[in-house]
Amino acid sequence: MILQDFIALSPILDLGAFCLVTMLAIAFRRNHARITVCAFMSCLFTLATLPWAATVAPRAVTTLLVVDGHALLYMGLILSATMVIIALSYRYLNSQFHEQEGVEEYYLLLLLATFGGLVLTTAAHFVSFFLGFELLGLSLCSLIGYVRTRRNPLEAAVKYLLLSITASAFLLFGLALLYFESGAMTFHEIGVSVKQWQTVPALWLGGLILVLVGIALKLGLAPFHMWIPDVYQGAPTPITTYIATVSKAAVMALLLRLATEVGILELPPVVHLFSLLAVVSMVTGNVLALLQQNVKRLLAYSSIAHFGYVLVALLAGGPPAAEAVTFYVIVYCAMSLGAFGVVTVYSSEGGDKDRVKDFQGLFWTRPWLAGMLALSLLSLAGIPVTAGFIGKFYAITAGVDA
Length: 402
Prior knowledge:
Blueprint: H1 3-8, H2 10-28, H3 32-48, H4 50-54, E1 59-61, E2 65-67, H5 69-96, H6 105-122, H7 126-144, H8 151-182, H9 187-196, H10 202-219, H11 227-234, H12 237-262, H13 268-289, H14 295-314, H15 318-347, H16 362-365, H17 367-381, H18 387-401
Antiparallel strand pairs: 1-2
Helix pairs in contact: 2-3, 2-6, 3-5, 5-6, 5-12, 5-15, 6-7, 6-12, 7-8, 7-12, 8-10, 8-11, 9-12, 10-12, 11-12, 11-14, 12-14, 12-15, 13-14, 14-15, 14-18, 15-17, 15-18
């Protein structure tokens, strides 16, 4: 590796080093506030290296990773969202779980999950794809069940673990079939093979569909959404926020690169699969959200519908799809951070307040929180003039023009 390679990889290398620093800081002396600051500054310093990495982008660092504008943009989104979640976590953990020992490791796991997300955004090879996928998933399993004094988080962690195992099984079997037929493991080489084939082999197509099912499980697209409501409700609210924003943004960045490099949107079976997933997700998410009495479950079903809209934009293909998908994901993450942030702050005042009736009269007691929650929900609903409306309009326009 030469200097330019190290510069391109500086965000990932820096965050990896900060994970070690955080681990040593915990071993040296346990202090919740100090470790929170350490984790926050780790993300901030890593975020500051992105402009430096951009000076040598686009650059392929070995065959495993590609650092380009796409990767750097999603890295910035992931790191920014993680910083907000770290800030929300401190007060939440202090107010509800101060009696639990070992709360500092929570932030180490959060950094490791973020590290996995950064790897996913730059993945250009099956190996880096799978490593980032697993690091993100395993860290989240631990974070969901981190609060050992309550039953709901442990139940949610088991469900997410089963989801991760299932997604990994689909993914590994699919990757094996792709490699068996194409003899390649990089996205670019597979894309070249696809263009050279007059007829796509049935085994290769089956492997690709298995990989896409594994990704759909992680994104919570219907009909692979059954884990979403229970995990969202059972997990600590900051971790629910992380799953809804950082985790999904990282997987979406990977799917967008896969679609661009391999050219899967030129295959009719994939287009039909994505169209079906988009329609089912939009209908299922919006209809079931109307029946919920728990805010976290309501937002869970909302996320299913939102990623149905993202698939509509993705089907456009080419630069318009990348722009529409990226804009929508950024807006969705910002509004989800706002909505879940209000739930987190409100819950930090004593007891989990996640039922709809808990927010009755919020305007008279906490007008700023009520205003932020209202703005976030209106934007998520796509009411005109809000950023959510612009994102939906952009996504649907791209899909219709395709």
